[in-house]
From TrEMBL:
PROSITE patterns: HTH_CROC1. InterPro entries: Cro/C1-type_HTH, Lambda_DNA-bd_dom_sf, TransReg_Diox_bact_type. This is Transcriptional regulator with XRE-family HTH domain. It comes from Plantibacter flavus. GO terms for molecular function: DNA binding; DNA-binding transcription factor activity.
Length: 99
Protein backbone atom coordinates (compact mmCIF):
# COMPACT_ATOMS: atom_id res chain seq x y z
CA UNK A 1 0.00 0.00 0.00
CA UNK A 2 1.47 3.41 -0.93
CA UNK A 3 2.14 6.07 1.66
CA UNK A 4 -0.44 8.77 2.17
CA UNK A 5 1.98 11.70 2.23
CA UNK A 6 5.56 12.70 2.92
CA UNK A 7 4.44 14.00 6.32
CA UNK A 8 2.84 10.67 7.23
CA UNK A 9 6.01 8.83 6.21
CA UNK A 10 8.23 11.05 8.37
CA UNK A 11 5.90 10.88 11.37
CA UNK A 12 5.72 7.09 11.03
CA UNK A 13 9.50 6.78 10.89
CA UNK A 14 9.82 8.89 14.03
CA UNK A 15 7.23 6.81 15.84
CA UNK A 16 8.91 3.53 14.88
CA UNK A 17 12.31 4.85 15.99
CA UNK A 18 10.92 5.91 19.38
CA UNK A 19 9.21 2.55 19.85
CA UNK A 20 12.31 0.62 18.86
CA UNK A 21 14.53 2.74 21.14
CA UNK A 22 12.35 1.57 24.02
CA UNK A 23 12.45 -2.03 22.77
CA UNK A 24 8.67 -2.19 22.57
CA UNK A 25 6.72 -4.33 20.15
CA UNK A 26 3.73 -2.98 18.29
CA UNK A 27 1.60 -5.07 20.63
CA UNK A 28 3.29 -3.53 23.70
CA UNK A 29 2.67 -0.01 22.46
CA UNK A 30 -0.90 -0.87 21.55
CA UNK A 31 -1.62 -2.02 25.10
CA UNK A 32 0.07 1.04 26.60
CA UNK A 33 -1.73 3.46 24.26
CA UNK A 34 -5.11 1.72 24.42
CA UNK A 35 -5.31 1.01 20.72
CA UNK A 36 -4.94 -1.92 18.36
CA UNK A 37 -1.37 -2.67 17.32
CA UNK A 38 -2.30 -2.99 13.64
CA UNK A 39 -3.34 0.67 13.60
CA UNK A 40 0.05 1.63 15.01
CA UNK A 41 1.70 -0.38 12.25
CA UNK A 42 -0.27 1.55 9.64
CA UNK A 43 0.88 4.83 11.17
CA UNK A 44 4.49 3.65 11.24
CA UNK A 45 4.29 2.69 7.55
CA UNK A 46 2.89 6.12 6.64
CA UNK A 47 -0.41 4.68 5.49
CA UNK A 48 -2.53 6.54 8.03
CA UNK A 49 -2.50 10.09 9.37
CA UNK A 50 -3.02 9.85 13.13
CA UNK A 51 -5.44 12.20 14.82
CA UNK A 52 -4.13 14.54 17.50
CA UNK A 53 -5.72 12.28 20.12
CA UNK A 54 -3.93 9.23 18.72
CA UNK A 55 -0.62 11.07 18.58
CA UNK A 56 -1.02 12.19 22.20
CA UNK A 57 -1.97 8.64 23.29
CA UNK A 58 1.10 7.20 21.57
CA UNK A 59 3.39 9.92 22.91
CA UNK A 60 2.10 9.45 26.43
CA UNK A 61 2.58 5.70 26.19
CA UNK A 62 6.16 6.28 25.02
CA UNK A 63 6.70 8.86 27.80
CA UNK A 64 7.45 11.55 25.22
CA UNK A 65 6.18 14.98 24.30
CA UNK A 66 4.26 14.76 20.99
CA UNK A 67 5.94 17.84 19.51
CA UNK A 68 9.05 16.11 18.09
CA UNK A 69 6.84 13.81 16.03
CA UNK A 70 5.51 16.74 14.00
CA UNK A 71 8.39 19.23 14.18
CA UNK A 72 9.36 20.35 10.70
CA UNK A 73 6.26 19.00 9.00
CA UNK A 74 4.32 21.47 6.87
CA UNK A 75 1.34 21.65 4.54
CA UNK A 76 3.54 21.27 1.45
CA UNK A 77 4.12 17.66 2.52
CA UNK A 78 0.46 16.78 1.93
CA UNK A 79 -1.01 16.19 -1.51
CA UNK A 80 -3.60 18.49 -3.03
CA UNK A 81 -2.61 21.82 -1.54
CA UNK A 82 -4.35 24.33 -3.79
CA UNK A 83 -2.08 27.29 -2.97
CA UNK A 84 1.01 28.25 -1.01
CA UNK A 85 -0.48 31.28 0.75
CA UNK A 86 -0.10 31.84 4.46
CA UNK A 87 -1.64 34.30 6.92
CA UNK A 88 1.42 36.53 6.42
CA UNK A 89 0.76 36.63 2.65
CA UNK A 90 -2.91 37.47 3.15
CA UNK A 91 -2.19 40.26 5.62
CA UNK A 92 0.48 41.73 3.35
CA UNK A 93 -1.95 41.74 0.43
CA UNK A 94 -4.56 43.50 2.54
CA UNK A 95 -2.07 46.15 3.60
CA UNK A 96 -1.10 46.69 -0.04
CA UNK A 97 -4.77 47.12 -1.01
CA UNK A 98 -5.29 49.69 1.73
CA UNK A 99 -2.48 51.88 0.40
Amino acid sequence: MPTHSEAATILGERLRAARNERQLTLEDLGVLAGMHWTNIGKIERGQVHPSVETLVRLSTALDLDPAPFITGLNADMYPGRAHKLTARDLLAARRDQER
